[in-house]
Amino acid sequence: MATIHDVALKAGVSVTTVSRVMNNRGYISEATRTKVYAAMDELGYQPNEIARSLLRKQSNILGLIVPSVSHPFFSELADRIEYYAYQKGYKVLLCNSQLDPVKERDYIEMLKRNRVDGIMMGSHTLEVDDFMSLRSPIITFDRQIREDIPYISSDNYEGGRLATERLVSQGCRKIAHICGNLQLDLLANRRTDAFRDVVQRHGVAHLIIQTDMNVFDQARYEQLLRELLVAHPDIDGIFATSDIIGAFALKECELAGKRVPEDVKIIGYDDVNAARWLSPELTTIRQPIDDFGKLAVELLSKQVEGETVEIRNALPVELVIRGTA
């Protein structure tokens, strides 16, 4: 197996020069760089990444923990994070917690053992104390777990306000809001706060339906919405806290013989790609998923370099009017 000394001898340079080429440090002429890479290719040399990370005190790896990569919002977010991480020279370790605290804790320990440079938390089953032992920089999505840990969210209150005002302006007189379990300490709960404020201000009849603790159990959405439409046949507006719930609402309305948007108007949240695959296309609140990914990588990379970053990062949302409302 070839060593760094073999590469240096083959390229006619010092071991230090080979090391500088591999770590992209200091000035190296393009001719020298080309010779070193040619020697590495010819000898089949593979650098010891663990040794290099110990030397640099950086692994150039970021950890991302999400509840369910099958959920369109988190799959699109993971895609954007990987894209921007790669642009900055990082690789991403993707962990799918499935809202299991034991699995989430195991993943955090695994990321610590692999000396990742930073961790992005999109899954929030652990208590705050579980994060105290982390030495790597960390950011969270839609949850503030400590005053000194940066988080990224959309302007959830404004999103809830825009959605509810749209339904009211379209003439809805009894609106159902389908949201996650409000016992979870999530910034997304502000969507529900805005919903309450708007319907109460306008004097509109309403009800709030919470999903189970596992807010990603899609089979539960069908049953919940079917029961809602049977128990409240006069519902004429639905504000869903995700596009997936909005899609199930559209399906269940059609199965119940209710026309959308004539009989029931529906608004989702996120604006994932699938929102445009429905017929009619889903009116929704757009979260800037691309900006989320870019900002997440930027916040972590700055912390890795020892820079101070903004703790509260709430990005603007937008009402996207399509066919369902």
UniProtKB/TrEMBL annotation:
Entry keyword Transcription regulation: yes
What InterPro entries would the database entry show? HTH_LacI, LacI/GalR-like_sensor, Lambda_DNA-bd_dom_sf, Peripla_BP_I
Signal peptide region: none
* Domain of life where this protein originates: Bacteria
Query: Could you tell me the keywords of this UniProt record?
Result: DNA-binding, Repressor, Transcription, Transcription regulation
Keyword RNA-binding applies: no
**Pfam families the record matches:** LacI, Peripla_BP_3
What positions does the domain HTH lacI-type occupy?
A: 2-56
Q: Which GO terms describe its molecular function?
A: DNA-binding transcription factor activity; transcription cis-regulatory region binding
Name of this chain's protein: LacI family transcriptional regulator
Q: Which organism is it from?
A: Paenibacillus lentus
